[in-house]
Write a structure and sequence with these properties.
This protein is an alpha/beta fold. Helix content is about 45%, strand content about 15%. Strands 3-2-1-4-5-6-7 form a seven-stranded parallel sheet, with helices on both faces. Helix 4 packs parallel to helix 6.
Length: about 230
């Protein structure tokens, strides 16, 4: 397998990349070249998906990627009336438009091989909605719609498409979003049924399962990995 993990320089993406090295040739991309070079990757592509995803599209075509993990994402907290045009463009470009373009670039090779795996990293905010994170929620909800439609479109080619929706995850991004909000970590944990944040390795292991042949019957699904957050109160 030739696997590409986006947003692999830190957080969930980095752990996914490290965990998938045992599965095949792992290629990584992100904005931090030094951090990417620390990984034992088969190839590195330094790219800002909010500005120039075409660089990565070319990289995908050159390296015959048959497993695509769309992990890179942007988060912003604030009222909708405070969002500038630049912020709107950056959120949607990174979280929805770039994954669409990357999938489009990867699918021709997957079809020629009659096999492929696409795993998108969404968010529980795209399932439930999150006040003061409307752009983020909307972009991740769009990713779920893309997943369902593409699962139908690509099923006959033995290509599966799924989205993992993490809840609060113990990463710099997750902890940083707390500092932007009106709540403390303790208050957030109290609202999570399992009273804990999800660990990045849990997301990585689910990705590993979804790209395996054992999961070949799972497609078009949004899987909530959120310590019970989506169930309700």
């Amino acid at each position: 397998m030739n696997i590409l993990v986006t947003g692999a320089s830190k957080g969930i993406g980095r752990v996914i990349a490290e965990d998938l090295i045992s599965c095949g040739n792992v290629f990584v991309t992100g904005r931090n070249e030094a951090a990417l070079n620390e990984l034992s990757a088969a190839g590195v592509c330094v790219c800002d998906l909010s500005k120039n995803p075409d660089v990565l599209c070319d990289f995908i075509k050159q390296n015959d990627i048959d497993v695509l993990v769309n992990n890179a994402g942007e988060y912003v907290y604030g009222g909708i009336d405070t969002m500038s045009d630049d912020v709107v463009s950056k959120i949607y470009s990174t979280n929805l438009i770039a994954p669409t373009k990357l999938i489009s670039s990867a699918v021709p090779y997957m079809k020629s091989k009659n096999w492929g795996r696409i795993v998108n990293i969404g968010s529980i905010s795209g399932v439930m909605g999150e006040a003061y994170a409307s752009l983020y929620s909307a972009s991740k909800a769009g990713l779920l719609g893309l997943t369902k439609a593409l699962a139908l479109e690509l099923a006959e080619f033995n290509i599966t498409v799924n989205t993992i929706n993490p809840g609060w995850v113990e990463t710099d991004l997750g902890l940083g979003s707390i500092s932007d909000s009106d709540f403390s970590k303790e208050e957030i944990v109290e609202c999570i049924p399992q009273k804990r944040f999800v660990e990045p390795i849990e997301v990585a292991r689910l990705v590993k399962y979804l790209i395996s042949d054992d999961a070949r019957g799972i497609t078009g699904q949004g899987i909530n990995l959120c310590a019970g957050l989506s169930v309700g109160i």
